[in-house]
Amino acid sequence: MGTKTLLFNMKVCLNKPYTGESYVNPARFSPILFSALLSAIMVCIVSAFVIAISQGIHTGFARQWFKSCITTWPIAFPTVAIVAPMVRRIVGRLTR
């Protein structure tokens, strides 16, 4: 999908009057949305676990956890986006 298409879709969405209906992303965005959500959830859980195990829960825990999430998510997101299709193919071969 090109930049013009994305900008057009955003413009159409922003120019629509609010009707009370929630906006649903087109299905073509599902791989990216899946990767973004899965990586964000995993980064939050794993970083909280690692910090809690290694340093315990202390007064600066939330700040350190947030910083850890922000610095590791840019690595996790593209990793999931690249690896997920390969994993789906492997699972497809293992489960018939």
Structure description:
- The protein has three helices and no strands.
- 76% of the residues lie in helices and 0% in strands.
- It starts with a helix and ends with a helix.
- It is an all-alpha fold.
- The chain has a domain at 29-94.
Low-pLDDT residue spans? none
Beta strand count = 0
SS class: mainly alpha
Principal-axis shape equals flat
Cα-atom radius of gyration: 18 Å
Report mean pLDDT, rounded to a whole number.
Answer: 85
Distinct helical segment count: 3
Distance between the termini: 32 Å
Amount of beta strand? under 5%
The succession of helices and strands, N to C, reads: HHH
Helix content class? over 70%
Summarize the structure.
This protein is mostly helical.
SSE topology sketch:
Blueprint (H helix, E strand, L loop, with lengths): L2 H13 L14 H26 L5 H34 L2
State the main characteristics.
3 helices; 96 residues; 76% helix; mainly alpha; flat
